[in-house]
Automatic annotation (TrEMBL):
The lineage of its organism: Bacteria, Pseudomonadati, Pseudomonadota, Alphaproteobacteria, Rhodobacterales. CDD domains: ASCH_Ef3133_like. InterPro entries: ASCH_domain, DUF984, PUA-like_sf. Signal peptide: none annotated. This is ASCH domain-containing protein. Residues 7-124 form the ASCH domain.
Length: 130
């Protein structure tokens, strides 16, 4: 089995808290990041079957998730099904606006940028685990 990694969702406390809550509620079953984060930024690529630990903003274990699918696609090619699986908006257009703002804040955005698109399942809620 692949070695698990730890990571934090989002780029600020409020977003991290919101995304963890969406996963706990069963509304968020997908996430994405710029391919450059993984190739140039040194982040570990998601691996199907790997169970990773999502941390809260303070670095405490919050959730254990298992990657069930990984695809690479351009931002402009993300479809409504994937966008809605991210659980952050109820329209593809809303997903595009929010993610364009996120990527602009975090290194740049182009409609043709490649994304690592990951689907996952919640394995365990670690809230309160030490």
């Amino acid at each position: 089995m692949p070695t698990p990694i730890t990571f934090t969702f989002g780029d600020n406390r409020a977003l991290c808290d919101q995304l963890l809550a969406l996963i706990r509620a069963g509304k968020k079953t997908a996430t994405c990041g710029a391919l450059a984060y993984f190739t140039e930024g040194g982040e570990d690529m998601p691996v199907v079957g790997r169970q990773d630990i999502a941390l809260d903003w303070d670095g405490n274990p919050a959730l254990k998730i298992e990657t069930i699918e990984v695809t690479i696609r351009r931002f402009c090619d993300v479809d409504e099904d994937f966008a809605l699986a991210e659980g952050e908006d109820d329209t593809l257009e809303g997903w595009r606006r929010a993610h364009q703002a996120y990527f602009t804040r975090n290194g740049g955005f182009t409609p043709e940028m490649e994304l690592v698109c990951e689907r996952f399942r919640l394995v365990e809620d670690l809230k309160g685990a030490k």
